[in-house]
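QA checklist item 7 of 12: single-chain prediction sanity check.
[x] sequence parsed
[x] length recorded as 715
[x] structure emitted
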Amino acid sequence: MKRMRCILILLLALGPAVLHAQERQDTLDASRITVIREKMRNTTQTGLMHIESKDLAGGVALFGSPDVIKKLQLLPGVAAGNELMSGLYVHGGDGADNLYLLDGVPLYNISHFGGLFSSFNTDIIDNLDFYKSGFPARYGGRMSSVVDVETREGNMERYHGSASLGLIDGRIQVEGPIVKGKTSFNLGLRRSWMEVVTIPAILYANARNGEDQTVGGDYSMSDINARITHRFSPDHVINLCFYTGLDNLRAKMEKVERAVDDAGVSHSGNSNMEIGVKWGSLTASASHQYAFSKKLKEKTILYYSQSISDTGYNFGMWGFSDGAETLTSMDDKDASHVREGGLTSHWDWYPNAFNHVRFGVSAQEHWYHTGRDYTSSTVKNGEKLQENADSEELGYSAFEPAVYAEDEVFLRYNLSVNLGLRYALFAVSGKTWHSLEPRVAAKWMVHPDVSFKLSYTRMSQFAHLVAATYMDLPSNCWMPSTALARPLVSGQVAGGIYTTPFKYFTLNVEGWYKTMDHLLMYSGNNSFVPPVTAWEKSFSEGKGRSYGLELEASFHKGPLSLSAYYTLSWTQRYFEDIYNQWFPDRNDNRHKINLVASWHFAKHWEVFANWNYHSGNRITFPSHFVEEADGSRRYLYDAPYNTQLPDYHRLDLGMDYATTFGNGHSLKINLSIYNAYNHLNASMAFLQANKDGTYSGMAYGLVPIIPTFTGTYSF
């Protein structure tokens, strides 16, 4: 009995140290053999999903490229928004309130081709942490989620890489030592070849249209990831990281028109239209990591990040009318740039076996610039009859310092609490905003396989995405909080139970309630481009709330992996200037179900399947109309987002064939089928007049079945 008492006392004393050592061990390479469900259960924070590179590389690959954002869209509590796009609407967020970090550097633009691809190249990613709630104090600047992506160090001992060719893009990744055992590099390149596909399509269209109408244009996407790592010692590391991504879109059309008037005189004219869009991101950083001892280590990052978008539109029309030569032209140029330079310093301190203290400071300088130029003119017989010109330009400079501290306290062998506080300041155009953000999370492990968690977080966001529509357009621009546009603020309570009731099986249930204040909604006309100067006056301020329940069930045994995710949620908005009651948000999807399966049924073969379902998105439809005196009809609306589209469902299938060669090289072939049973989900809807004088809504689907073939050769 005395011996048992001693053992119990020893366990109570060493329990926190063991758990503490385990959490530190999670940062080491050896943790890659642990399964994700154990990290989910053992960490103190709620709403955290840790994903390794091997889990990103497998599965269904739309258009041939594995996609980080589309992987996250499968998770409970996340809405995808428009089909095929890289939208991420977390716990009722608006998509512009997610913090994306690439090697610790904020990214403002995270997609290519208007959202069809994300900017994260999985060939070079090591792991990522995705937070939906329970945000630690070390994260700040956005209010709905954190996507923290870390790229992989290059191999210190030997050279290897891979080359992939997909449906519309190709990828190359190479890594190896610069100085063996000391310095390494890792390089990833990706580029689309859609312009090659469009050449025959353009030639065919021009041949069919004849010489009176010609079309042209192309689109290209490219990005580069690079990382250089130098190890002075196992405890002293320097990393240089670089990323750039760029999209270019050009389109033009020329048309010749001929006509004969009543006098038999032949007239001719032509019109031409040209559109050019360029947008992209660039980040560069240098990080220094040093462990002063087993109890104290630091990581400091000096970085630069930018996002640019330049859009140009030109239209011209020339011809003869009544014997006069007439020339009409319009030219529109829009530019939106945001740049950021910053320094962050993070420290980890282990004063004893019961505390893990993190603290740090950061400072960012932001530069926002938006400009628009519009000109139009009409010239008749060399005489200018009309000319309109409109030019707007606006720039801001803002300074944002922050300081944080958090302590992971192990109160007992089965009870831990993370207490954190973050303070941020935002100074812009003579206005200074202050934000104090408490964070607290607790975990009670009632059994080695069962834990309860609870968290509260307050988050602030000083950047606003100014957009006239919900679509991800290059004309959207970032603006800072000003004296008229207050910072966004969210408060969220989350809690749940995380279990492994049986071997190979996990069951997690989590609920949340979230409030969002100082949201902005466009209240101007139906323009795609809101005004630049005095932009705050084109938006109404309101608030939002979101609450719901998430369920995750997973089974992993040997070659078989099965997961089921379910979300029951409510997302609402209140904008008094627009509607004096709470109304559902566009992404208020009451039910969401995702079923994910993979089976490595033979040595070289693995199959995948995803089934996706969610309640339909919402749109605003006229509820009635008024007959005007001139015979026209003016449509009226009873509430925003008053109509629900049909429910969404889709099946994706995939198959991998992988083989290795005697020289250590390997080949993997992936065949993926998006929307396998070809269900055309509603992408848009219109009001249609019926013969009996009534009206009905008609929904239209645009995305059919899409097969994709990809080959990857690794060496």
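[x] summary fact logged: DSSP finds five helices and 40 strands in the chain.
[ ] second reviewer sign-off
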